[in-house]
Amino acid sequence: MEATCVVDCKNTLGEGCVWDPRDGSVYWTDIVESRIYRLGSDGAVSVFPLPERAGFVLPRETAGFVVGLASRIVTCDANFRTFNTISVIEADLPQTRVNDAAVDPFGGVVFGTFDERDRKPVAAVYRCAPDGTVTKILSGITISNGIAFSPSGDIMYFADTPEGTVRRFMVGTTAWAALEELSPLAPAEIADGLPDGAVVDAEGSYWNARVWGGCLVRVSSEGVLQETVRLPTKGPTCVTLGGKDGRTLFATTLRVMHTEDELEAAPLAGGLFSVQVKVPGVPQRLAEI
Questions:
Q1: Distance, CA of 158 to CA of 256 (rounded, Å)
Q2: What is the pLDDT of residues 66-88, one digit of tens each?
Q3: Is the Cβ–Cβ distance between 144 and 112 less than 8 Å?
Q4: For residues 157 and 144, is the Cβ–Cβ distance under 8 A?
Q5: Is 77 a catalytic residue?
Q6: For the purposes of burial, counting CB atoms within 10 Å of the CB of 136, is it exposed (0-12), middle (13-18) or buried (19 or more)?
Q7: pTM across the whole model
């Protein structure tokens, strides 16, 4: 299977793509350029400037979004003009910034940080509850990625990108509790590249963008590699499932850390890609923050 470029946006660091069921659009970020992009159901592309870099954008149950700016978690209006700070994150660690995230089964947002200066395990994973309370749930992380939840919401997936293993945690189904780590879903060697952003489909399989591996992979809940989608660039960063029937897999990519020769050979690097898949996604959860 191969993905095709649907928006040749040449993002420096495209990330955080998410399907918004409220308006049938895909939203994503260009972290380096401090922008959010929207691909509407009519094919129109909109670009929104931000006050600082953003690792994620997630739709809310009410109007607007929850956005993970580099230094803080905010809520904002639908046009990304007004930003209300929920919590400042890791103010004592200037080398880290907010990175990957997902809405949990209880309306909260689980997000992680990234040591972008030293690539050392000083980052962490947090949960922002619907009331705005932020709690650290994992520590000793270098680059937080791959956060996703099973269809029932009882399992959370997570990957520290340089370490490479896709980890699994029992969450529970009635209320958020302390995480219980289970056996890993998949080792780093399951596919080319390293684990980046992820999404789970209706069968419970885990779609994962494999940065530097030039592919997207589908791994069953038993840890079996089921499908591989190739991209004409080595840097896919995040995936989401959407479209009218939930069977369009979208993927963001990047242009950083490419040589001039590599960019010449892969002119669509930094674009938004898509491919049709057989199994639809789980309906996108909406943040209650």
A1: 24
A2: 999 999 999 999 999 999 999 99
A3: yes
A4: no
A5: no
A6: exposed
A7: 0.97
The total of other beta-carbon atoms located within 10 Å of residue 265's CB is 13
Which is the catalytic residue, given 196, 201, 245, 261? 196
Contacts of 42 (CB under 8 A, 6+ apart): none
**Measuring CA to CA, which residue among 7, 4, 21 is closest to residue 245?**
21
- Measured CA to CA, the distance from residue 275 to residue 54 in angstroms comes to 25
CA atoms within 13 A on the CB side of 16: 35
Q: How far, in Å, CA of 162 to CA of 38, rounded?
A: 29
**pLDDT grade, residue 236 (50/70/90)?**
very high
**In this structure, what token pair is assigned to residue 213?**
């591996």
Residue 176: pLDDT band (50, 70, 90) is confident
| Category of 245 on φ-ψ map: left (φ > 0), alpha (ψ -120 to 50) or beta | alpha
* Closest by CA position to 15, among listed 125, 130, 97: 97
Burial class (CB in 10 A: 0-12, 13-18, 19+), 122: middle
DSSP-derived pairing of the beta strands 248-253 and 236-242: antiparallel
Cα–Cα distance measured from residue 145 to residue 214, given in angstroms and rounded to the nearest whole number: 17
Tokens matching residue 183: 């056996």
Q: Enumerate the β-bridge partners of residue 45.
A: 39
List the CATH code of the domain at 4-276: 2.120.10.30
